[in-house]
Amino acid sequence: MFACCYWIVDIKQWKIWSKPFEIFGINALTVFVLHVVFLKTQFVLFLQDHEGHFVNLKTFFMKNIFGWASLESAALLFGLANMLFWLGLIVMYQHKKQHHDLKLLKSNEYLTKIPSLKG
What we know:
Layout: H1 2-11, H2 19-26, H3 28-44, E1 46-48, E2 54-56, H4 57-64, H5 71-112
Antiparallel strand pairs: 1-2
Helix pairs in contact: 4-5
């Protein structure tokens, strides 16, 4: 499997499909820690469902958002939704960082055009 991915990404240079893995790989430790914090949090927070019972956050999402699916499918969909949520946060962070770096670059170009600031 690894050899196949190596051949596709590094030798053939087909990299568009691997962007989500690249983003997760850049900050793997941060993603892991945040995942654990979120995992622990979803078992500590309780919400009231439509029947009046207090259930933890994971059960609430499984029943109310993915309740139409079987238990196994709901667990898979919950995991995929969780992954997409974190991937979305990372993409937004990368976009913000690139935008900030571009702004900083433009401001530095502006400062070098001012005659009194040239060294």
